[in-house]
Amino acid sequence: MGFLSAAILSVAALATAASVPNSKMKRQVSQLRSDYDFVIVGAGTSGLTVADRLSAAFPSKTVLVIEYGNIHFAPGVFDPPTNWMEGIPNPPPSWTFSSLPNPDMNNQTAFVMAGQVVGGSSATNGQFFDRGSRFDYDAWLDVGGLEFAAKSIKWDWNGILPYFKKSVTFTEPSQAVAQQYNYTWDVSAYGGTTPIYSSYATFQWGDQHILGEVWKEMGLNPQAECAGGDKEGICWVPASQHPLTGRRSHAALGHYADVLPRSNYDLLVQHQVVRVVYPNGPKHHGPPLVEVRSLADDHLFNVTVTGEVVISAGAFHTPTILQRSGIGPASFLASAGISLVVDLPGVGSNLQDHGGPPVTWNYTQPYIFDHLPDELANNATYKSEAIAAFDDTPSHGPYTIAMGNSAIYVSLPHMTPTWCTIVQRIRQIALTPGLAASYLPEDIRTSPSMVAGYIAQLLTLAQHFSNPAFPSLETPWATSVAPASAVSFLLHPLSRGTVRLNLASPLDQPILDYRSGSNPVDIDIQLAQVRFLRGVLDTPTMQGYGASEIAPGAAVAADDALLEEYVRSQSFLSFQHPCCTAAMMPRSRGGVVGVDLKVYGAEGLRVADMSVSPLLVGSHTSSTAYAIGEKAADIIIQAWS
Ligand SMILES: Cc1cc2nc3c(=O)[nH]c(=O)nc-3n(C[C@H](O)[C@H](O)[C@H](O)COP(=O)(O)OP(=O)(O)OC[C@H]3O[C@@H](n4cnc5c(N)ncnc54)[C@H](O)[C@@H]3O)c2cc1C
Ligand SMILES: *[C@@H]1O[C@H](CO)[C@@H](O)[C@H](O)[C@H]1NC(C)=O
Ligand SMILES: *[C@@H]1O[C@H](CO)[C@@H](O)[C@H](O)[C@H]1NC(C)=O
Ligand SMILES: *[C@@H]1O[C@H](CO)[C@@H](O)[C@H](O)[C@H]1NC(C)=O
Ligand SMILES: *[C@@H]1O[C@H](CO)[C@@H](O)[C@H](O)[C@H]1NC(C)=O
Ligand SMILES: *[C@@H]1O[C@H](CO)[C@@H](O)[C@H](O)[C@H]1NC(C)=O
Question: Where is the Glucose-methanol-choline oxidoreductase N-terminal domain (predicted)?
Fold first, then answer.
């Protein structure tokens, strides 16, 4: 993109952001039309993508998006006057959850957030904008078995790549910036013009390159572009930010404010979708009614839909809406006193998220670089200069980096000589009668479809884990300021959790049971990952700085039992990437939606958000949520054209 067109786009983006609230936004039921062709539940990352595409494709059909949160165009938690090193003192609206204790992780609870705002989690996230590897999406097809192989709609890498490309506008860094940091990229991974921006910061911390050198010393190879399907090795990762303003780019701008006015596109804020209702029960023909609650006065009303309903409320809330609608595990719904509409044991089951422990160290040799993150906290002049630089056009300086722009992604065969044993153990769990089932959540353990689906997932993952190009560890980094840490992301957890309505208060937040570590192979893989990451300390670069390990430490690492205890007690249980709670898998394998994203056994109802991912991808999840929204929209547009 030329400088001039970027400048015009950015002015447009800021102007529309400033001019909200606008006439398209509704706050009262009285402002709504009598009925809508399409209702999208949740103005989040996927939901707003779908709403934008449908309202553009069908000017004579009406689209209503119903959102719990409010409109809030704050650039984000990582922009001035705060940044990621300074905590999150004033976040835009988010829900925060504490999971049930995890018995296999020393009873720790997972701390998780979810955006509760127009834009959803894209408006509150860390802006790290990677994609999974090709194998992550190929696995979505593999778990579908022969049934999905026979469908014309495919969600493998080739089937989703066009939507990744369409979903963002990538801007190349300037030559000067690229040379300064050695950024590499390949534009052939991109090509879209949607105003959701992917770009590189014009600033990196003074010590950013150190871990890059360390990874090379550990034998990892740089990948020139990691969004093109192949990402095993050392990666540069762009951020979801505007190339010129440095501000967060999110769904509420790119799929709402920037595409208005559009007379057929309405957004109702501060309303909770309670459930969908089929007035004639399971035999009902046509789309359901949508029952909505006003947060202002608790008033309940129904919205009439003539086309279809798309639920895009995110991995924690999509299953709550389905469960309140009588669509879910029959035994759970019976215990909740909710009449059964469709028995789908996968609703709110199959919960997965990234987690893992850190390896931490200090430096004993002088460690002096220009511009380390603590300068923002310790030097008021530097900080005010940094804020002025961020407000400059084009913006520059430390506030242009969100969570960082680099990470390693390492496969099991490149990480540990024991990879074969790990893969064998997964296969053995899958193939030993009753064993896989015994690791599933208790309330679905006896469901033949859930067990079949879990076995298919285990066999699919075992196969991919053997592939040296399939990353199973991620470690992001932006700076190695002391005490430094390399965090071990378990990219493909085998443990499965649940999201269930809180029966004491079903309209409130659901109960999250992460069940982290319940499949013991997750612990085996984490042991290998931590041992691999400790290799950081042995590299010439780290030795040169006298890097001194703080945790887990050589004594702990040398002892399996102690290291296991370290993993169980020191892991972060969520890196904020929940998924898979309304999985796209065959119904006979515990799936909730098919490849067309239609909810099995329910008419006029689809799901489009991170819930439909059957297996967690080896990536932060926002780019996948956008791509799901894009492909969902295309499927719906074809169905109604
Ligand atoms: C703190 C945090 C940091 C993250 N960091 C990164 C990162 O750096 N990089 C990355 O790629 N990903 C990151 N993620 C993950 C990523 O942002 C999400 O996976 C993705 O945005 C989810 O998209 P979604 O469409 O599934 O749901 P969301 O975008 O969360 O949208 C769901 C929407 O539904 C609304 N809603 C829920 N229930 C109801 C209801 N009953 N009625 C009406 N509306 C409802 C919500 O308010 C929300 O707006 C992060 C997430 C969080 C929370
Ligand atoms: C976890 O909590 C349970 C129930 O309170 C208790 O029985 C168990 O010993 C605890 N486990 C650990 C490791 O603390
Ligand atoms: C960039 O790469 C060159 C050539 O490999 C190297 O000399 C230089 O130190 C690198 N700079 C950074 C910041 O990594
Ligand atoms: C919505 O419609 C259903 C089915 O007709 C009905 O049972 C329910 O009471 C309605 N809800 C409201 C708030 O009117
Ligand atoms: C690490 O180094 C910092 C800065 O020198 C120091 O404050 C801290 O106590 C050290 N921590 C440990 C565990 O050695
Ligand atoms: C604080 O930052 C200013 C501006 O970058 C710089 O000139 C000054 O030397 C810094 N002060 C210290 C004590 O580092």
Answer: 314-328
Q: Tell me which residue of 479, 297, 290, 344 sits closest to 403, measured CA to CA.
A: 479
310 CA from centroid of ligand 4 (Å): 19
User: From ligand 5's centre to the CA of 534, what distance in Å?
Assistant: 18
pLDDT at 342 over 70: yes
Active site (annotated) includes residue 577 = yes
Q: How confident is the model at residue 90 (pLDDT cuts 50, 70, 90)?
A: low
**Amino acid making up residue 156:** D
Which ligand neighbours the alpha carbon of 366 most closely? 5
pLDDT surpassing 70 at residue 370: yes
Residue 374 near ligand 6, beta carbon < 6 Å: no
pLDDT at 13 over 80: no
Residue 227 and residue 131 in contact, taking contact as beta carbons nearer than 8 Å: yes
Check: CB of residue 184 under 8 Å from CB of residue 146: no
For ligand 1, atom 8: residue with the closest CA? 126
State which ligand 5 atom lies nearest to the alpha carbon of 548.
14
Helices 448-465 + 134-142 axis angle, to 10: 150
Q: Looking at the whole model, is its pTM more than 0.85?
A: yes
DSSP string, 269-321: -SEEEEEEE-TTGGG--SPPEEEEEETTT--EEEEEEEEEEEE-SHHHHHHHH
Hey, what amino acid is at 437?
Answer: A
Ligand 3: list residues with CB < 6 Å.
181-182, 209
d(CA 370, CA 372): 6
Ligand 5 neighbours (beta carbon < 6 A): 362, 482-483, 550
Does 144 contact ligand 1 (Cβ within 6 A)?
A: no
CB 67 within 8 A of CB 271: yes
Kindly report the protein residue whose alpha carbon is nearest to atom 2 of ligand 6: 382
- Quick one: CA dihedral 327, 329, 332, 337, positive or negative? positive
Rounded-to-10 torsion of CA 255, 113, 577, 92: 30
- What's the sign of the alpha-carbon dihedral 610, 270, 52, 124? negative
Q: Which atom of ligand 1 is nearest to the CA of 274?
A: 41
Q: Is 388 in the pocket of ligand 6 (CB under 6 A)?
A: no
Determine which one of 354, 414, 492, 577 is catalytic.
577
CA distances from 168 to 190, 192, 446, 486 (A): 7, 5, 43, 29
| Rounded Cα distance, 156 and 153, in Å | 9
Residue 18 has pLDDT above 80, yes or no: no
Nearest ligand to the CA of 29 is: 4
3-state secondary structure of 552: coil
Residues whose CB is less than 8 angstroms from the CB of residue 604 and which lie 6 or more positions away in sequence, other chains included: 286, 287, 288, 305, 307, 308, 309
385 CA distance to ligand 5 middle (Å): 29
Q: What is the mean pLDDT of residues 325-331?
A: 98
User: Which residues, 6 or more positions from 626, have their beta carbon under 8 angstroms from its beta carbon?
Assistant: 45, 46, 49, 122, 164, 167, 168, 196, 251
Ligand in closest contact with the CA of 305: 4
Predicted confidence at residue 482, as pLDDT, reads 79
Output the six-digit token pair for 344: 């789908």
